[in-house]
Write a structure and sequence with these properties.
The structure holds two protein chains of two kinds. Chain A is an alpha/beta fold. Chain A has 16 helices and 17 strands. Chain B is of the alpha+beta class. The longest helix of chain B has 16 residues. The chains are: A alpha/beta, B alpha+beta.
Amino acid sequence: MSDAILNQAYDVQRVREDFPILARSVHARKGKPGKPLVYLDSGASAQKPRQVIQAMTRFLEEDYSNIHRGVHFLSQTATDQFEAVRAKVARFLNAPNDRCIVFTRSSTEAINLVASSYGRTFLNEGDEVILSIMEHHANIVPWQLLQAEKKIVIKVVPCDEDGVLDMDAYRNLLSDRTKLVAITHCSNVLGTVTPAKTIAKLAHERGVPVLFDGSQAVVHGTVDVQDIDADFYVFTAHKLYGPTGLGVLYGKYDLLKKMPPYQGGGDMIESVSFEGTTFKAPPSRFEAGTPPITEVIGLGAAIDYVEALGRDAIAAHEHDLLQYATQQLSQIDGLRIVGTAPGKGPIISFALEGVHPHDVGTIVDQYGVAVRVGRHCAEPLAERFDVGPTVRASFGLYNTREEADALVQSLQAVKEFFGA
Amino acid sequence: MMDDLRELYQEVILDHGKNPRNFRHPDDANREAKGENPMCGDRFMVYLTLKDGVVDDVAFQGRGCAISTASASMMTELVRGKTAAEAEKLFHAFHELCTQDEPDIPEGVDDETMEKLMVMSGVRQFPVRVKCATLAWHAMNAALHGEAAASSDQF
């Protein structure tokens, strides 16, 4: 009921006009028109609306300068705009205040920051870190590096056939040895949204902090870090219709305050002498060197953009696409969808019997359909479902039912081609 | 557009992809090397039986896409009976064919073999698929040189 009302208000054709790249065609040849782009790879990186592109251009043309250093007019202007985005990100996540928001280069760097700074300081030999089977490599490898250095132990929460996290197994893995939990809030392969609030509550009963990888989750729904009671929460700008090269780490201030710097450099120190250097308080402590200033401005515009459309309206639109595409894809003989958890995000990974995903990707691309093929930086998960590589269609706020149809038609062509 | 696809997925490739030849592990193989493409997870083992400097038998196992499987299958048919030096020359010829618009083919590769190799040349129009086509060939070349693995980083 409420979905239908929201969808009526959501004019996807109007939304598409905001994304210049969606008007292009691909594979045009001499004398032959190309195919309209059907972009179903937003899970890898989302396209950018004109509002983001223009905000970055305007900033570079009118207000650009380094920040936090100059006494001159532009430096103050740029600093004010930069810090206004920090406050905006805090509101976006419902963080208690903007001092909890650290800008990084990516989600990956944000996780590495926690593994390196928090992990090296507070984790010791034999301590356990709990991950899940559906983690992106970005939330596996930093902990393995720590494992090699500090001899910590990594425990992995499994999932069931639908891709639902096994919460009984999670409860059983939590113990006195557990010192940190790091789990995705939404799987980039299965689309599974994990019960973050319960995960955090169970960990907190043992005094264990929890990090959530929100790279996919912030794109497809509203995230409230205080409601979840996340200790750390990371996401990246480029999947949220913003620029590349920028990630966000939210951390509870009490934790950030206890953590040593991650990198050394300018802008993170109070005073430097060769006898000793003192560091600024967070978040500055973790932002050594000149940050991606223009990209931060772009993220601010991206947040404005999704909030103007309405995050609930976007989620409802994407949910409709997910249901429609799932239904249509399910009618293809020999197609197996991997990840069928209730309430999942708009990500559909699948295998087509008798045709390797790489061949699927090449052929549907000739029809203008952009999908991801491979193991999606989550090899352990591919092993879990014994599917090897898969094809992944991921939907964003600008996709349409017609594009889901285009995917299905191109897959029919694949089947004809291979006689599958 | 579809012409390019037909060029890439020629009937003979589709056939080799579905029914790969020499898809086995010979008991008397005395060289083997793994070929792996971490991007897509394709993984092959190539087995050689070298006798007096000649490839007496060549076979492969593993899993990959139609292009990599077909290329591996055709490789086994073309390399068998060749001397180690000839097999290496074929590897270079094939690599040229898949990557260069004006391939510099080494001398001494006969026309009939070249014609069979040409079937794969459609992959040039699909740069991301070149690694698929050359995967088993790299593994074969590694095995010839007594190496255990060919990584796609080297391709």
